[in-house]
Amino acid sequence: MDSFGQPRPEDNQSVVNRMQKKYWKTKQVFIKATGKKEDEHVVASDAELDAKLEVFHSIQETCTELLKIVEKYQLRLNVISEEENELGLFLKFQAELDATQAGKMMDATGKALCSSAKQRLALCTPLSRLKQEVATFSQRAVSDTLMTINRMEQARTEYRGALLWMKDVSQELDPDTVRQMEKFRKV
């Protein structure tokens, strides 16, 4: 039964036909796993699909890399903000001890550094949002697409196995023999 509750055509197949189908599917999996050369026409017909799969895998890698980069950026922003704030506080403290012009400059610089540290920390909120959006995209869209691709790859393997079977049967085909024509139609 298929996903709609309808009987599949292969449910009515004989045991021999199912075994042959499994044999050719397995042979296709073996060809793919060993890297043997496949029929050039079949491979050429899948070129557009393979190009789209490369784009998908590039998107998948990019999402992963972007998540890592945003996380590192957030950590480094926190560290530099903390260091900048500490330096600003240190300069302000030293300015209180020094009543000269240098003390006034230290105070102004300290205030500027503390303000800059606060502004850097303000970047963390949009970065967190970006990280959350990319993670959601990666978890939902990319993983759903990956499941669909896996199902498609299984169907493509079955299809290519059927093509191998048809090629094998067609090489033995004698159009004058009714039995062989019937066997070809089954395939």
UniProtKB/TrEMBL annotation:
Family annotation (Pfam families): Arfaptin
PANTHER family with a match to the protein in the record: ISLET CELL AUTOANTIGEN 1, ISLET CELL AUTOANTIGEN 1-LIKE PROTEIN
Gene source species: Galeopterus variegatus
Domain (AH): residue spans on this chain: 44-187
Coiled-coil boundaries: none
Protein name in UniProt: Islet cell autoantigen 1-like protein
SMART domains: Arfaptin
